[in-house]
């Protein structure tokens, strides 16, 4: 029941009621008259109401549903004399029905009516119920003067019937005060006992549920539904469901009863260690899917969070909905229990076969495989091979050092690569694309050895030395200490430098050249040539002989 339109006034009810009855008698006399004329043009009938008096009756009052006049000239008809030559047939019908109701009224029985306010006067209101008009004094209406009552549906109880005067008085106030007393009794009982009671869900909203407890509605806020925390009530309940509730508080001014479902049920967190432990495998139901993870219902009024990173061993999970659906049952492993924060974390991937185990059972270092590029970064590309992803580093893209992952590859490309390293413990796979091609350094090494004199063009300068190009995709390093007699500061890109190979390793694709060693090597070669140019017949004895002769 609504109370916002209640207004209480101190008024002399008896005097007002008597005044209302007098007015009713003076203008609503029930008489029997005779129709003397029917004038369809002016839409009226002239009725002789006795005493030499004629009165006009609106013809619409005696027409049937098809618009035909139901009476003829000479017919007797009961009407209510409304004064000033006006009468009403419909009011007479209502008056007759009211008299019949009054005659059959049982004072031992309570009558609760539901009708519509049709009229108002200084004393109160007329409430029409199935064609009967009852009087509701203003002080018994609990209707505010600020509210227009006409057309308002009201519920009231009959408090007085005057058979002599043909009037019925009803009271809305009586029912409201009864309801208020009942409400206070229910609230007092709920708050005093603090025991769970059974209630029936009447309405579900986005912010909670209205629950009927013994004829009174209370609100279960969405934060008071479950020990899991705030939940959407429509996901767990339906209107008509019975639930256990406990009263929390009652606001007398707002007449608002607060209820709790979660306080009426045991708190699982009070004995969580006996219910679940880290490492346990449990069956859960997917209850809510978000981009960052999934909430799962473990039962026992417990909810856990399954982070997106714990759904699959695949590191490229774009959205959990690609793997799970609401309502789906899954097995998960408990990986964290935060008692203080009342939070549980679980993992799905921990119960799935590890991709690295599957990979190493099928592939070995040196295998040539095909994979799909899943992502491209500044340092290389990740390629999915079977159940895992391997790194194809920029250095392993091509023997041409100007090429890298971003210049050569796109996500979705299928590439053929060679497995060059498997780190099972770290879960890392290293791949190479250039390993499938002949090494330019290996080809160069077939014709050049340590000690070979070469000429290269300066490509780059670093603090530790100078890089020179010896051939296509064949570079060499001249360390700073090996540049003598050249001066580091005077060397420019594009300059031609001659040196000798001091180190060459085709497997690591590395060559070092030394200018300083070239100078010593050239001196040695010149000495050897000089020796060769001398007389081969001259012996050591000859040489000493010549000296002795001197």
TrEMBL record:
<dbReference type="GO" id="GO:0005840">
    <property type="term" value="C:ribosome"/>
</dbReference>
<dbReference type="InterPro" id="IPR012340">
    <property type="entry name" value="NA-bd_OB-fold"/>
</dbReference>
<keyword id="KW-0687">Ribonucleoprotein</keyword>
<keyword id="KW-0689">Ribosomal protein</keyword>
<comment type="similarity">
    <text>Belongs to the bacterial ribosomal protein bS1 family.</text>
</comment>
<dbReference type="GO" id="GO:0003735">
    <property type="term" value="F:structural constituent of ribosome"/>
</dbReference>
<feature type="domain" description="S1 motif">
    <location>
        <begin position="366"/>
        <end position="434"/>
    </location>
</feature>
<dbReference type="GO" id="GO:0006412">
    <property type="term" value="P:translation"/>
</dbReference>
<feature type="domain" description="S1 motif">
    <location>
        <begin position="279"/>
        <end position="349"/>
    </location>
</feature>
<feature type="domain" description="S1 motif">
    <location>
        <begin position="110"/>
        <end position="173"/>
    </location>
</feature>
<dbReference type="InterPro" id="IPR035104">
    <property type="entry name" value="Ribosomal_protein_S1-like"/>
</dbReference>
<feature type="domain" description="S1 motif">
    <location>
        <begin position="28"/>
        <end position="96"/>
    </location>
</feature>
<protein>
    <submittedName>
        <fullName>30S ribosomal protein S1</fullName>
    </submittedName>
</protein>
<feature type="domain" description="S1 motif">
    <location>
        <begin position="194"/>
        <end position="262"/>
    </location>
</feature>
<feature type="domain" description="S1 motif">
    <location>
        <begin position="451"/>
        <end position="516"/>
    </location>
</feature>
<dbReference type="GO" id="GO:1990904">
    <property type="term" value="C:ribonucleoprotein complex"/>
</dbReference>
<dbReference type="InterPro" id="IPR003029">
    <property type="entry name" value="S1_domain"/>
</dbReference>
<dbReference type="GO" id="GO:0003729">
    <property type="term" value="F:mRNA binding"/>
</dbReference>
<dbReference type="Pfam" id="PF00575">
    <property type="entry name" value="S1"/>
</dbReference>
<dbReference type="InterPro" id="IPR050437">
    <property type="entry name" value="Ribos_protein_bS1-like"/>
</dbReference>
């Amino acid at each position: 029941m609504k109370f916002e339109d209640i207004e209480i006034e101190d008024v002399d009810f008896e005097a007002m009621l008597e005044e209302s009855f007098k007015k009713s008698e003076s203008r609503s006399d029930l008489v029997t008259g005779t129709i003397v004329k029917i004038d369809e043009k002016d839409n009226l009938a002239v009725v002789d109401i006795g005493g030499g008096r004629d009165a006009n009756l609106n013809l619409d009052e005696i027409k049937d549903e098809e618009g035909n006049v139901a009476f003829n000239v000479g017919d007797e008809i009961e009407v209510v004399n409304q004064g000033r030559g006006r009468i009403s047939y419909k009011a007479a019908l209502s008056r007759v029905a009211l008299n019949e109701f009054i005659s059959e009224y049982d004072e031992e029985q309570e009558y609760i009516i539901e009708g519509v306010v049709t009229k108002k006067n200084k004393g109160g209101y007329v409430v029409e119920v199935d064609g009967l008009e009852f009087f509701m004094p203003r002080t018994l209406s609990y209707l505010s003067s600020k509210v227009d009552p006409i057309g308002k549906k009201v519920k009231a109880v009959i408090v007085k019937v005057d058979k002599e005067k043909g009037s019925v008085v009803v009271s809305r106030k009586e029912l409201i005060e009864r309801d208020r007393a009942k409400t206070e009794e229910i609230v007092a009982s709920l708050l005093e006992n603090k025991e769970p009671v059974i209630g029936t869900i009447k309405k579900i909203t986005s912010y909670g549920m209205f629950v009927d407890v013994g004829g009174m509605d209370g609100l279960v806020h969405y934060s008071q539904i479950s020990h899991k925390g705030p939940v959407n009530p429509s996901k767990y309940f339906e209107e008509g469901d019975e639930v256990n509730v406990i009263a929390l508080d009652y606001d007398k001014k707002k007449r608002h009863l607060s209820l709790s479902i979660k306080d009426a049920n045991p708190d699982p967190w009070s004995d969580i260690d006996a219910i679940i432990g880290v490492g346990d495998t449990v069956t859960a139901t997917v209850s809510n899917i978000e981009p960052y993870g999934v909430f799962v219902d473990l039962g026992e009024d417990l909810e856990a969070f399954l982070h997106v990173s714990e759904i699959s061993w695949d590191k490229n999970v774009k959205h959990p909905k690609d793997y799970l659906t609401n309502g789906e049952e899954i097995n998960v492993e408990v990986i964290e229990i935060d008692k203080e924060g009342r939070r549980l974390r679980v993992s799905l991937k921990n119960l799935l076969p590890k991709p690295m185990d599957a990979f190493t059972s099928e592939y070995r270092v040196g295998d040539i495989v095909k994979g799909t590029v899943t992502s491209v970064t500044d340092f290389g590309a990740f390629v999915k091979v079977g159940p895992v992803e391997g790194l194809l580093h920029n250095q392993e893209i091509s023997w041409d050092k100007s090429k890298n992952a971003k210049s050569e590859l796109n996500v979705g490309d299928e590439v053929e690569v060679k497995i060059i390293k498997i780190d099972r413990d770290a879960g890392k796979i290293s791949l190479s694309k250039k390993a499938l091609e002949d090494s330019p350094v290996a080809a160069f090494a077939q014709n050049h050895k340590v000690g070979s004199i070469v000429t290269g063009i300066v490509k780059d300068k670093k603090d530790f030395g100078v890089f020179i190009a010896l051939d296509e995709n064949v570079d060499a390093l001249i360390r700073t200490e090996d540049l003598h007699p050249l001066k580091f500061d005077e060397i420019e890109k594009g300059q031609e430098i001659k040196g000798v190979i001091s180190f060459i390793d085709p497997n690591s694709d590395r060559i070092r050249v030394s200018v300083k060693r070239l100078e010593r090597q050239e001196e040695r070669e010149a000495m050897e040539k000089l020796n060769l140019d001398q007389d081969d017949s001259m012996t050591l004895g000859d040489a000493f002989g010549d000296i002795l002769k001197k």
